[in-house]
Design goal:
The complex is a heterodimer. Chain A is mainly α. Chain A contains 16 helices and 8 strands. In chain A, helix 3 packs across helix 9, helix 8 packs across helix 9 and helix 15 packs across helix 16. Chain B is α+β, with helices and mostly antiparallel strands. Chain B is globular, with a radius of gyration of 27 Å. Classes of the chains: A mainly alpha, B alpha+beta. Strand 1 of chain A pairs antiparallel with strand 4 of chain B, so a sheet runs across the interface.
C-alpha cells in the first residue's frame, strides 16, 4: 500500500471517529438560529435538570396561583376528577420513603393520579411551563411554576408548608418522589438499541409468544367477556354508523322515535363555545366546574346590564358569584365572540 | 315467500327471486303453469306504479332513473369534491364518556366501512392534547438545535418555503395511537370496530428525511443519540425518538398527506412521521427538533403512555406498535343480511416491518385458514386481507391473526393478559373476536 493510500485511509478513519461530515449541504436553505431564538423555544427540562430555568417559589404563593389559575379545572387541592384526572392523592409516607407507590403493587389504588405515576419531578415542571394553564399555555413565569410545584409537593405531603422550591434544591426533592423507582424499561418496545448497547430496554424481544397453529388448536372456545347491554346502546344508533347498502347493515340499537329523530345540528354559538374551550367548565344545562348556562340565564335574565357584566366576567375572569372556584380570564377569546356567546347564554344557550 | 322475509330489516327480494325453494322445485318438475300464477301474486304485492311491469323484471332496470334521463351537473360544481350524499353515515366519532374535554380527546376512524389501506384524509382519526389550530404556513418555522452546542455544528431555522425545496420522499405508513383498543384491556366495552380499533389510519406521507436536516446542521451522531420532537400548539407536545431510526432514514418531516397538504387536525403544515411507533411520537405542528444524549421523560413518556404491569411497575418508553390485525367486514354492530357467500375483509399491520401472513378462524380459534393478502405489502403500513366465507346461518366466531417478518404472531387475550394483566391501557394488540348469531347480528366478544 502506498503512503498516499495510507494517508487517505487515516483521514477517512479520522472522519468516522469524530462523526464529522459535510453540512450546509443545500445552498440557500436554512439559516443559523440566533441565541435569542433558541432560548425562546428551547424550554424542555430533562430528568437530570438540563434546561431547568433558575428561580424559586414557595408553597403559599403556589397555593394562591393555583387557586387563581388552575383550581377551576383541577379543584382547589388538585384532587378534582371533574375535568381532568386528579393531580394529587394516592401516595403515602411509606411510598415517599421507598419510591414505589404501594397501591400499584397491591393493585388497590383507587385512582391513578399524576403524583402516583410520575417518577421524575422534571416532567411536572416541564409540562406546567410549556402547556399550562389550559387556556393560556406558556403564560407562567419560571418562579410561578416553582411555586405551583411547591404547592403540589406540599399537598402530596412531600415537603412542609413553609417550603421554598428552587433550581438549587429540586434534585433533593427528586429523591422523595413517591414513585421514583416505579418505572421499568425492561421491555422490547423501544424502537432503538438495547440498554446493553447504550439504549433502552431489551432490544426488541417480545414479551408474549403465540404460535400459528392451523388445525384443532384447542378443545373448546372460552369466552372471557361479551358486550354488556348498556355498551350496545351507549354509542348511539349503530344503524346510522354503517352504509345503507353493501354486504352488511348496522344494527338498529335505538328503536322507534329515538332512532328516527336525527341528532340536532350544533348551533354556531355552541360550536364557538366549544372552540373556545368554554365547555370544558360549563354545561348547557348542568354544572361542570363552573355553573351551567341555564343557571346563568336564570340568574341574569331580568337584569338590563347583564350583557355588559357577563362580558367583563368572561374577559377578565371573576370569583364569588358561584362559589370559590374562579372563572379564569379568557384573553384568547375575541371581543365579538364573547358578545355573541353572552347573548346566546342569556337567550337560553340552545 | 321463505321464512327469512319475516326477519326485521329484511331486504325486499328482487322479482326474479320471488320463488320459494319448494316452488323452484315445482317449476323444475315441469309445472310451468304454476309460474304464471306466482308472477301475478308477486306483481300484486308490489307498489302500484310498477305493478304492471313487474312481470317483466326489476323496476330499477325497466324504469330509467333520473340520472339516465336528465342532464347532470357541470365540472367544478364542487371545487373541492365531497363524498356522495349517500355516504353520510361513515364519520369520525367520539366515544361518549371517554373524555370530558373535546380539546384533549379522540375521534375514531370508521374502519367498518373503509376499503383498501389508505384512510381518506377527512376520516383520519384525531388525537389532540390541547386542541387543534389551523397554523399559518407562512408563519411556521422549524428549528433544529442541540441540547449541548457540541452535538450540532449549526443550529438552524427553516421556513416552509425552504423545507419544500429540499429532496423529498413519499411513503405509505400506518399511524396507530398507543391507546388503540385500550378500552378493551379488562373486558368488552365498546360495540364496533370504529371504537375498538379506530385510532388507526394509513396515509401516503411526503416530506424530508429528518436525517437530511440533521446532517445539514452538522449533527454529531456519536454524541447525539436521541432526538426530541416538539409541537407548536399550546401543549407543545414533546417525545423522545432514538437516533437509530433517524439514521435509518425512515423518520420524516412531512408536509404532504395523500397527495395534498396535511389536514389541520393532522398537523398542518408540518408533522413528524415515525413509522411503526405509536401516534403520540408523530408530533404535529412540528416546530422544533433537539438532538441530545439522553431521553427526556416528557409528560407523554412519564405520566401518560406508560404501561402499568401486574407487579406495579410502569413500563416507560414503550413505543413500538406490535403486530396486530382486525376483521372490519363483518364486524361488531353489523348484521349479515342473509346466508350465503361473503368476502370477509380486514386490516393487518406491524410496527416491526411487513405483514407476512394473516390467518382467519370462523370457529373461535380452533381451526384457521390463511387469508389472501392484497399486495404489494408495504413496510409498517396497513395491509388488507380478504378470505372467502359461506355463512350457513349458524353461530360463528370470527378472528384474524397476523404475523410479521420477524416471525412474531399476534397473541390472544389470554396470552397477553398472562404477562401484562388488564390495567396497562396501552399496546393492546390481542386477537379480536366477532361473534355472529343466527339473526346475523355481529357483536364484540373476547375469546381467551
Amino acid at each position: 500500500m502506498s503512503r498516499f493510500s495510507k494517508s487517505i485511509l487515516a483521514l477517512a478513519a479520522l472522519a468516522v471517529s469524530s462523526g464529522a461530515f459535510a453540512f450546509d449541504n443545500y445552498k440557500g436553505l436554512g439559516r443559523q438560529a440566533t441565541q435569542a431564538e433558541v432560548a425562546a423555544w428551547d424550554i424542555d427540562v430533562r430528568p437530570d435538570f438540563k434546561g431547568l430555568p433558575k428561580g424559586s417559589g414557595d408553597v403559599q404563593k403556589g397555593n394562591d396561583l393555583f387557586e387563581e389559575k388552575c383550581a377551576s379545572c383541577h379543584g382547589s387541592f388538585g384532587e378534582s376528577n371533574e375535568v381532568f384526572t386528579p393531580l394529587i392523592g394516592g401516595t403515602t409516607q411509606d411510598d415517599i420513603k421507598k419510591g414505589r407507590v404501594g397501591g400499584f403493587v397491591t393493585g388497590d389504588i383507587p385512582q391513578r393520579t399524576t403524583f402516583t405515576k410520575v417518577a421524575t419531578i422534571s416532567t411536572v415542571y416541564d409540562y406546567i411551563y410549556r402547556a399550562m394553564p389550559w387556556t393560556a399555555p406558556k403564560s407562567l413565569k419560571p418562579d410561578e411554576v416553582y411555586a405551583i410545584l411547591a404547592y403540589f409537593l406540599n399537598l402530596a405531603e412531600i415537603v412542609p408548608g413553609d417550603f421554598v422550591l428552587s433550581d438549587k434544591n429540586i434534585a433533593e426533592v427528586q429523591q422523595k418522589m413517591p414513585n421514583r423507582n416505579g418505572m421499568t424499561t425492561n421491555h422490547g418496545m423501544w424502537p432503538g438499541p438495547s440498554a446493553a448497547k447504550g439504549g433502552i430496554g431489551n432490544g426488541g424481544k417480545p414479551d408474549v409468544k403465540n404460535v400459528a397453529c392451523m388445525k384443532d388448536c384447542k378443545k373448546e372456545v372460552r369466552i372471557g367477556s361479551v358486550l354488556p347491554d348498556y355498551a350496545r346502546t351507549a354509542h348511539g344508533n349503530l344503524e346510522d354508523q354503517n352504509r345503507s347498502f353493501g354486504p352488511v347493515r348496522g344494527v338498529r340499537t335505538i328503536e322507534g322515535e329515538a332512532a328516527a329523530a336525527k341528532a340536532p345540528a350544533q348551533s354556531p354559538e355552541l360550536a364557538l363555545a366549544n372552540a373556545n374551550a368554554c365547555m370544558a367548565c360549563h354545561g348547557l344545562s348542568n354544572k361542570v366546574v363552573g355553573p351551567g348556562y341555564n343557571e346563568i340565564q336564570a340568574r341574569y335574565k331580568d337584569q338590563a346590564d347583564a350583557p355588559d357584566r357577563l362580558f367583563a366576567k368572561v374577559k377578565a375572569g371573576g370569583q364569588g358569584v358561584w362559589g370559590s372556584v374562579p372563572m379564569p380570564p379568557n384573553g384568547h377569546v375575541k371581543d365579538e365572540d364573547i358578545k355573541t356567546l353572552v347573548k346566546w347564554i342569556l337567550s337560553g344557550a340552545k | 315467500m321463505g321464512d327469512l322475509s319475516n326477519k326485521p330489516g329484511r331486504l325486499q327480494r328482487a322479482p326474479e327471486n320471488f320463488l320459494t325453494e319448494e316452488q323452484v322445485k315445482a317449476v323444475g318438475a315441469g309445472r310451468r303453469d304454476f309460474m304464471r300464477k306466482s308472477f301475478l301474486a308477486a306483481s300484486a304485492a308490489m307498489m302500484a306504479p310498477v305493478a304492471a311491469r313487474a312481470v317483466e323484471g326489476d323496476p330499477e332496470i325497466l324504469n330509467l332513473p333520473p340520472w339516465s334521463t336528465t342532464l347532470g351537473l357541470p365540472v367544478a360544481t364542487n371545487p373541492y369534491g365531497q363524498p356522495s350524499k349517500y355516504e353520510s353515515q361513515l364519520l369520525r366519532r367520539e366515544s361518549p364518556g371517554l373524555t370530558r374535554v373535546g380539546g384533549a380527546s379522540v375521534s375514531f376512524a370508521p374502519l367498518q366501512g373503509l376499503f383498501g389501506i389508505i384512510t381518506p384524509s377527512g376520516l383520519h382519526f384525531e388525537r389532540h392534547h390541547q386542541g387543534w389550530h389551523d397554523v399559518d404556513p407562512a408563519r411556521h418555522r422549524l428549528m433544529i438545535n442541540g441540547s449541548d452546542p457540541a452535538f450540532l455544528k449549526k443550529p438552524k431555522v427553516y421556513t416552509m418555503d425552504q423545507l419544500m425545496r429540499l429532496p423529498s420522499v413519499s411513503r405509505i405508513h400506518f399511524i396507530e395511537c398507543g391507546a388503540n383498543t385500550g378500552l378493551e384491556w379488562g373486558n368488552v366495552a365498546v360495540p364496533t370496530v370504529q371504537y375498538t380499533h379506530g385510532m388507526l389510519s394509513c396515509s401516503e406521507f411526503t416530506g424530508v428525511p429528518l436525517k437530511l436536516l440533521l446532517e445539514d446542521c452538522g449533527v454529531d451522531y456519536k454524541k447525539a443519540r436521541y432526538v426530541l420532537a416538539e409541537g407548536a400548539d399550546g401543549s407543545s407536545m414533546t417525545r423522545t425518538i432514538p437516533m437509530e431510526m433517524v439514521e435509518n432514514g425512515e423518520v420524516l418531516v412531512a408536509y404532504g398527506m395523500n397527495g395534498e397538504m396535511l389536514r389541520p387536525e393532522n398537523g398542518y403544515p408540518l408533522r413528524l412521521v415515525v413509522p411503526g411507533v405509536q401516534g403520540v411520537s408523530w408530533v404535529k405542528w412540528l416546530r422544533r427538533i433537539e438532538v441530545g444524549d439522553k431521553p427526556y421523560a416528557t409528560k407523554d413518556e412519564a405520566v401518560h403512555y406508560i404501561d402499568l404491569m401486574p407487579d406495579g411497575l410502569h413500563r416507560q418508553y414503550t413505543s413500538v406498535q406490535e403486530c396486530k390485525s382486525v376483521i372490519t367486514t363483518p364486524s361488531g354492530g353489523q348484521r349479515l343480511l342473509e346466508q350465503g357467500f361473503y368476502n370477509v375483509s380486514g386490516l393487518a399491520w406491524s410496527g416491526r416491518g411487513k405483514v407476512t401472513r394473516v390467518d382467519v378462524s370462523f370457529d373461535g380459534g380452533i381451526n384457521w385458514k390463511t387469508a389472501r393478502i392484497e399486495g404489494p405489502v408495504q413496510n409498517k403500513a396497513l395491509t388488507r386481507f380478504n378470505v372467502d366465507w359461506v355463512w350457513d346461518g349458524k353461530p360463528a366466531i370470527l378472528q384474524s391473526r397476523a404475523m410479521d417478518e420477524t416471525g412474531y404472531v399476534q397473541p390472544s387475550y389470554g396470552q397477553l393478559r398472562a404477562v401484562r394483566g388488564t390495567k396497562s391501557i396501552y399496546h393492546n394488540n390481542a386477537i379480536q373476536s366477532w361473534k355472529i348469531v343466527e339473526s346475523g347480528e355481529v357483536s364484540n366478544v373476547q375469546v381467551l
